[in-house]
Amino acid sequence: MRGLFSYRSALLILLLGVFTYLYGLDSRFAPKNGDEYPYMHIVRMTAQVGNWLPLQSEMDGIKNTKPPLIFWQGLASSHWASQWSLASLRWPSVLYTGLTAFFLFLAVRRLSGKTQTGLLATLVWLSFFATYRYGRPFLADPPEVFWISLPFMALLYWGKGAFESKFFFPLLAGICFGLALFAKSFAYIAPATFALGLYYWRWRQWSIPKILTHDLYKVCIAGLLALAVFALWFAFDPNPEAIWKEFVLGENAGKFAARNSNYVLDLLRGGDSIWLLLLTTLANAGLFTFVLISTLWQCWRERRFLSLEEVLLLLLIVAFLIVFTLPSQRSGRYLLPIMPAFAALIALHWERLPLWGFRIALLLQMLALSLLLWIGINLQFSGLMEDLFTWTYSYCHWILMAGSLVIVLVGLLRRNHSKTLALAGCFLTYCALTSSLTPLEAKLGRYSVETITQVQGKDVWIPCDYRAKDEEYRLLLPGTKLHGYLAKDAAEVSKLTSSYPIVAVHAPLGAKPELCDSCQIVGQRMEMRARHSDEEIKQMLQGHIGKYLFVNEYLVVTPVIAPDLSNVKDVCR
């Protein structure tokens, strides 16, 4: 380990990882999940009322979509929506991710006896794309992963003291599980207690009589206490019937209904099959997917010689996999709490892992970096952009891209450095992705102060392609009254300008919209398109990036009288 992963390498990559998770934290284009904007909407509406409960929302059927802990977190970090920004909402998620990484370090250092191995486990987990994607945005995943993982990491750290604890550890586990349920869903009590039971069973040398005598009551204490914490939502909310209908029956029980043909066929084939669940779980590792596969294969080959701690990590993984095959809606995202266990296994086997998994990771990084470099060169030097919409990178961006490519190339050519540089390359790739979109975070992708001032307090219609899309525009046009129309109609300028008094319309790069004589453009910016046809994708692969990936958005004031909003359906809702 001393030769392959030194303290210096660990500290340098740790600094790189911290920078990666903080860089672009306020970006609208940060890798995330579509739930973030609905969550923001619920926080903002609840803050307007001024009460912690009940949660508020203008979206049909989306009010009690998650327990209140994540929304209370948003209320606190944004000071009741008075400091409204993505960074204000997201920094607690990064804090949760950092705490998970820290306790993972302590647990793996304790069980391995090596500080480098503990640091390695932390860095591997942070390098997973799923950790980066779900561990930074304003989502329920970071607190869920932290509170579920904490008791299992405590068992690895304290060992016999935790396993033999009669009341202290079961109470600690129950509180932690309860906070996880209060952040995500009561359904997580099933895999959590199942995994805890397997841990005790292995500790008792697979003796059923011993676990029934000494440990069953501990699992019951943890499970019942966790459910009691979750039940506080029903106790404090003035409308518990809505929670039962929307969250328990709609959000959770509905996931057991057949989605396509019938339950058994859905289990074995299609987009919700168990096989796809396994693939998406492995794919949570992102660029390190094949490193994870090689680790699991090595665990299988060495199954007779695995340590107690390695067996416990595998039991946690198996428990969650078994439980989450039961719902008809299966997703690798539900298995995020087991990704720290995967990272620990990779760190424990790091010295003995074959190079092919790391070389595939380096090749994927080289491909991603080359693609980002090609797109950046195409955008900056194609000449397609107008003078007003000039796509320009700083020198730091080109230095980052060149340095990242050199480091990845060195990792491919020098065997002794392949593993360490593959780990560093994951973070460099994420930084390159964020840096490649920085022009849209500056003047190019935002409305001017004059435009924002001109439309203050006015009704503005904007394109929506998913629920609560207006929360993104609320960051671009603060102080306006936003209403949504179908995003597919954004290029139908004449129809939109004849229907709405102030409307955002789209036009291809290099072309201005044809407007009526009394229409006036009061603002403009560039936006990245979300959906493309097969032909458009083909054209982009041939080098026409800017023409099809981006559009100009114009904010137009028209002579149309404002419609009666009581009869207008807001597509964002």
TrEMBL record:
One cellular-component annotation, GO: plasma membrane
Biological process per Gene Ontology, one example term: protein O-linked glycosylation
Record bears the keyword Transferase: yes
Pfam families: PMT
Keywords tagged on the record: Cell membrane, Glycosyltransferase, Membrane, Transferase, Transmembrane, Transmembrane helix
Topology of the protein relative to the lipid bilayer: Multi-pass membrane protein
Subcellular location: Cell membrane
GO molecular function, one term: mannosyltransferase activity
Transmembrane regions listed in the UniProt entry: 89-108, 117-135, 167-196, 216-236, 274-299, 311-328, 334-350, 362-380, 392-413
Record domain ArnT-like N-terminal: where: 38-236
UniProt xrefs under InterPro entries: ArnT-like_N (IPR003342), LipidA_mod_glycosyltrf_83 (IPR050297)
Keyword Transmembrane found: yes
Protein name: Glycosyl transferase
Native source species: Polynucleobacter campilacus
